[in-house]
Design goal:
A hairpin with a 2-residue loop joins strand 1 (34-38) and strand 2 (41-48). It contains five helices and eight strands. With 212 residues, it is α+β, with helices and mostly antiparallel strands. It has one domain (3-207).
Length: 212
């Protein structure tokens, strides 16, 4: 299989799996529902109007600006991927960039289309200046809950590996306080981006051997 076909396979596979899981969760779970798979692995359905791992930026305008930025980032990453494939770069680097591209596309699909195809979702209330959750299970094929590029990203993966940890008393500011590790809820697209970026950092000497 050629390098280009490998990259395309990675991108399409990640997007397909990510969207299947998101649509299943959104159409089978009430907002806020949690289901423990193992003690350290929980399906926790939330929606995220902001960036990866539940980070939020302000308001409806911030949401739109983020969506536009994501599209520009996808174009730039896609251009870079095409060029490193043509240059016959290290296979590992190509796969990592493909993972990053797939994750970025996976999340922009939520932002672009979920507000149009689902009847319920997280929406911004300009009066309270807060994002409002909803009750019940969302359905496909009904009147949408938000405009193009204003949908919220579906998150569901939660790994509270340490659930009742405590910082040591001698630690400044947080000494004695409890914590949960790992606290953010995320999705497969987020994971794809994180794995791609982390792998490039870890194996950069191998990936960029010629440049070195």
């Amino acid at each position: 299989m050629s390098l280009g076909k490998k990259a395309l396979l990675v991108v399409l596979s990640v997007i397909l799996i990510d969207q299947i899981v998101k649509i299943y969760i959104k159409t089978h779970f009430n907002y806020g529902d949690s289901k423990e798979i193992f003690g350290w692995f929980v399906i926790n359905f939330i929606e995220n109007p902001g960036m990866a791992f539940g980070w939020v930026i302000g308001g409806s305008f911030g949401k739109l600006a983020l969506s536009i930025f994501r599209i520009l980032a996808i174009v730039a990453i896609g251009w870079y991927l095409v060029n490193i494939v043509k240059a016959k770069a290290n296979t590992g680097l190509v796969i990592c960039v493909a993972l990053i591209l797939a994750g970025a596309i996976g999340n922009i699909l939520d932002s672009a289309f979920y507000g149009l195809i689902f009847d319920k979702g997280l929406i911004y209330d300009p009066l309270t200046r807060e994002w409002q959750s909803y009750y019940g299970i969302a359905h496909l094929g009904h009147h949408g809950y938000a405009g193009f590029l204003k949908g919220s990203v579906v998150d569901m993966l939660y790994f509270p590996i340490i659930q009742n940890g405590h910082f040591p008393q001698w630690l400044p500011i947080w000494g004695g306080e409890s914590f949960i590790f790992f606290h953010p809820t995320f999705n497969i697209a987020d994971s794809s981006i994180s794995i791609g970026v982390a792998s490039i950092v870890l194996f950069q000497k191998r990936f960029f051997k010629h440049e070195n």
